[in-house]
Design goal:
The chain is mainly beta and about 625 residues long. Helix content is about 10%, strand content about 35%. The chain is built from six helices and 42 strands. An eight-stranded antiparallel sheet has the order 32-36-37-31-39-29-30-38, with no helix packed on it. Strands 16, 17, 22, 25, 26 and 27 form a six-stranded mixed sheet that branches. A hairpin with an 8-residue loop joins strand 29 (about 425-430) and strand 30 (about 440-445). Helix 3 (about 350-360) packs across helix 4.
Amino acid sequence: RRAGWGLGGAGLAASYLAVLCAVLLEGAAAQPCAAGLYDATGGGDPMLTGCVKCSPGWASEQGSTVCTQVLTGEVRNKLDDMVFGGMWPEFRVAVGDTLTVKLSTSHVASGREGEPKPHLKAAESWGLPGYATLCGSNAHGAECTDGGAPETWGLLEFAPRPDQQGEEYSTCGEATISAVIGWVVQPLLVCLKISVVQVTPMFGNSSVLPEYSTFSSDFQFVGAVGCMMEIPLQISPSSCSAPGCTISPTGNASQCSTSCGNAASLMPSVVGQLPRGAKLHRRMLNSSESSLLMAAGDLSEYWAITWTPELHSSSQVPYTVCVSAGGAGLAQRCWDVTVEKCRHCVRPGETLASIAAQHNADWMQLYFANPTLPSRNPQVVSPGYNLRLGVLYEVQSGEYLEQIAEKFLVEADNVLSENADLWAESTIEYAPKAPGRSTQLDIAFSASRGLSAGETLTLTLSELAAPDWQGETAMDCETVGTSMHYGPFSKPHIKACSQGLSAPGESCGPGGWGECNYDGEGTIACNVKQCAGGSHPKLGAARWMGGTKKLTIDVVSSIAKSEMVRFVVPRTAGLIYPSRGHPEAKARAVFPVPMKVNVKEGLVPFEMCVVLPVCDPGLSCLYGTDCKISRAVK
């Protein structure tokens, strides 16, 4: 039970040194060993001679040749005090679980009275894993106080974080006991090994979710405006190969498992963003479903993404929906979700008339476009019926919105409303909101389809007034600079600021913006604040056309579908806040009509939904089908 310097070369060197000292001293009296060592010469172990240490947890009297065990230690289970065997018991724990074990130490009765209770703390030489605590502290100097003589124990708790997956740790508690006069006690280490298992959840299609979800494959879902879609999500734990036991959150380490992960580690999270109105939620299983899964030993977590597409959410280009699990996003799964164009899923209580009103149409248009309606009564439409709204028209090269609208004898705004991938709702903030003064526009929108460099977006801002302008957009105007404008601005005979006519602090004249002020040479001019936020990475030049009150912005770098874009039109554009009332806080950002769009299969012809008028002379089409209209026919 002795260990230390008496092994290998070190032991031989100590022996030679002892012999040499004996010869040199020629029988002189032996010198006492230094503190913490004892003289093993002549002891029970012939390999140990000279001054050596006792084993950890053992002690000797000064000058004695005998070590005596004074401390014991072990790793136990928190709940039932079951002892884990071995010098370094091994444990595994997954992210989301908490490893909780007891490090215990006791002194061994030596016949001496008043022996103190052992001290226990984290061993400085080994330390603790990050986010682990011993006796409530992650510092090696904090002592444990639980237990009564002759025992001291403390809880080692470890709840690993996602970035610790795959790591292995060796950690120890250090037990000591107050020195008894004449005795030297070696500290005892109570140690264990911890493996943070790599949790890689597995995705599968749920067999217990309802079957009314419409999907063509495991990764593609198709729905329509009006009715709820549900994407089933089943997340199963992966198998474990790490040694030891998986510790449950209650700390009952006597229950070992062959799977890794629990409800916390299997919880999914959204990657990116969901379509507006969509939700990720845990599915509530009924009692029969729960019993079935329990009987099968199914440890999976069951979630779902539900979405009821609203008006203007249909698109030829599918939405991409992704979720990950495992905390660190080790597992990920994505689906393509397409909301059919020119379709409306009938909700309870809806009629052809109420649906037609949402699309600026007449109920007869819908009645004739759906010859397969279950009932001949136009006021009776079964909930869930996938109603056809009009026809899908394949755009030809060079065609634009107004031209297509004229071909079908409908208003351009009506065609635009039925094709949400041609526009996006934008929000606008104005600063300052000073009537009759130039204002800055802070505009944000989420792209309803992918935009390529070279395309444009156009906003109609009918409440604003200003002469034609061309300039650059900016990311923001958090920082501003100033410049002096000396006029004239819009018209040669109108002075922005005039000496003797304008006072410092007054607003610049018509066609100008900012405040009148003196420059460094005493000349009065218009002092203009300008954006200093730098050029925009996605958008380039902006143009304001005063006659049509349209703001057009060039796209200089591709914008992905659903990407949020924010830009600023500075006050230098001279857009004037209305003298009365308040401008709209929302406006449509209209995109050009593409000839082709990029879907998973590649570039495909762009199809526009057109809600047709009631058949009039001169209109030739076939109702009840997604017909292709001849270019020669209006």
